[in-house]
Amino acid sequence: MNLKSLIVIVFFGITENTYNSEKDYMDIGEDIGVPEDFTTGEMVSGMWWRHLVSGGVAGGVSRTCTAPLDRIKVYLQVHGTRHCKIKSCFRYMLREGGSISLWRGNGINVLKIGPESALKFMAYEQIKRTIKGDDVRELGLYERLMAGSLAGGISQSAIYPLEVLKTRFALRKTGEYSGLVDATKKIYRQGGLKSFYRGYVPNLMGIIPYAGIDLAVYETLKNRYLQTHDKNEQPPFWILLLCGTASSTAGQVCSYPLALVRTRLQADMSPGKPNTMVAVFKEIIKNEGIRGLYRGLTPNFLKVAPAVSISYMVYETVRDFLGVNMT
């Protein structure tokens, strides 16, 4: 996809209809998309928190099922040519720590779903009220994107130390940390509170391109489908699955270099190593070329479809159990 076609897709998607709630169950391990809008009735009835719980449970199950691919992605991002193939990386992890080691870092990845979702939801609602003022109108898509990006930035700022811990646990060797408290103490001793915010800048910078592309591509594909079908009927699951997979993939491709740089900064505090975003970019391009900015992208792609499918099925099950009837 060249730059011209990308701009066309984004522009066309943003000028289409509103971003509906069907995509909010699609958890792929990155919670930086635009949050859902709830109706006044759903807010008053308390249906919103049941929906958030359903999404949280779905995200936890989905992330756990795809955790081995996520850990392989982190390894490839950080170690570059040291473990340059998925198969060799997989074998190394099994030799080093056994099958259970494939899930290192997953506990923290699941743990952060609750506070991250709650913070983003509360921030999003407050920002929406600030933008609308006394106006009762619904926000336009540009306004939703802005509000969602700001809310994502706020929630990411609050839970970012957990992101650093997740990366360190995913990369740790057997016996390196005895637990979460031990890891926190050791990271703090390496560089104080700053250690828990390494990679924070590229992480924030990646929110807008990811959320914008994800939002635009999903709406574009879904509305293309609705042009030839009954607009009053909900698109079938497989259409939403394809739209969600394609939009998430497009968003990840555009923001992936920033995510890779973030992960490398989170992982490495060795003396003499680059400790700024620009320095890491330069080192990667110098030593590995442009392709180095996309290391680990393949396992990231491989986990999108199963992550979306699993989170959808679990979400529907929990939603029915809690009596959620989202309109």
TrEMBL record:
Mapped Solcar repeat ranges: 46-130, 139-224, 238-321
Record-linked InterPro entries: GDC-like, MCP, MCP_dom_sf, MCP_transmembrane
Membrane topology, from the record: Multi-pass membrane protein
Primary location: mitochondrion
GO cellular component terms, semicolon-separated: mitochondrial inner membrane
Record's keyword terms, sorted: Membrane, Mitochondrion, Mitochondrion inner membrane, Repeat, Transmembrane, Transmembrane helix, Transport
A Pfam match: Mito_carr
Example GO BP: transmembrane transport
Localization annotation: Mitochondrion inner membrane
Family to which the UniProt record says this protein belongs: Belongs to the mitochondrial carrier (TC 2.A.29) family.
Family matches, as PANTHER family: SOLUTE CARRIER FAMILY 25
UniProt protein name: Calcium-binding mitochondrial carrier protein SCaMC-2 isoform X6
